[in-house]
Structures are given as C-alpha cells and as structure tokens.
Design a protein that fits this description.
The protein is mainly beta. The protein has no helices and eleven strands. It has strands spanning 3-7, 10-13, 18-25, 32-39, 46-51, 58-60, 68-73, 78-83, 92-102, 115-118, 122-127. A hairpin with a 6-residue loop joins strand 5 (46-51) and strand 6. The relative contact order is 0.32.
C-alpha cells in the first residue's frame, strides 16, 4: 500500500501559476503509475494528468493540456503538478493517486476505480 500526501494548494488569481506536490511512502511508490484528479462541489472526481512509473510518458485531460505539467522524482518519492495560466474553472480539490498495479507501461489510466491509494486532497481556488 502507498500512502500519499498532497500540498501546495492555495488561492490565486486567473493567469497565475501554482505547483502541487505529492509525497508518497511505501516500497512500491516508484513502480506505480501516478495521477492527479480533481473534484469541485457537485461534480464527480475527474482525471487531470497521469505519469507512468518510469516517468517516460505522461498524459492529460483535454481541459488542461498545454497548461499543466506532471512530473515525478522517484528518488524522493514525489509527484508534481505544475499548473500555469490557471482559470476559475480549475478551482477544485486536487488529489494525488497511485495505480493499483505496479510496473504497468500502459499510458492512459483515467478512471478513479483503478487507483487504489489516494491522498487527502489540497484545495486550489482561482479567482477571476
């Protein structure tokens, strides 16, 4: 099992940038596909960005492509989400998640049900 903790959220203005950090613990962190999801009030949790365990491939939701960048540092057991040109519609609680199976090379896991470990979330609020 992987334990996760997010940080870096806050209140920013439209057009600003913010970087979220997710710290993981557990022996298999570096062998898991990692992803960021977000959830706003009244909406379902939605996929934002993912990165396979090697860090060699990333994938994004269309709504954030070109503005957000996911990366990871397995030596530090950390995953990052760099968010540029933030918009009010990016306002949500952002969650870090680890895929349930290790060492998968598949690029494209987007359903919350295939991620078995979750952090507590960090709030991002973007004012207009």
């Amino acid at each position: 099992q992987v334990q996760l903790e997010e940080s870096g959220g806050g209140l920013v203005q439209a057009g600003d940038s913010l970087t979220l950090t997710c710290v993981g613990s557990g022996r298999t962190f570096d062998s898991r596909t990692m992803a960021w999801f977000r959830q706003s009030p009244g909406k379902e949790r939605e996929f934002v960005a993912g990165i396979i365990w090697t860090g060699g491939s990333t994938y994004y939701a269309e709504s954030v492509k070109g503005r957000f960048t996911i990366s990871r540092d397995n030596a530090k057991s950390m995953v990052y989400l760099r968010m540029d040109n933030l918009k009010p519609e990016d306002t949500a609680i952002y969650y870090c998640a680890a895929h349930k199976s290790p060492r998968s090379y598949y690029v494209g896991y987007t359903f919350p049900s295939v991620f078995s470990s979750w952090g507590q979330g960090t709030q991002v609020t973007v004012s207009s």
